[in-house]
Amino acid sequence: MRRNITDIIPSYFLTLLLLMALDIACTTFFPLVGLTNFRLPFNILIVLYMGFKLEHPTLAILILLTQYAHSFFTLEGWAMGTVAGIIVWMIVSYLRDLLHFSSSFVTGFVTQIFQMIWFLIVAVLIYIKSGDVSYLIGKLWRFIPESLIISFIAPFFFSILDKIWSLGRGGSLGDEV
Question: How far apart are CA 69 and CA 93, in angstroms?
Answer without folding.
Answer: 23
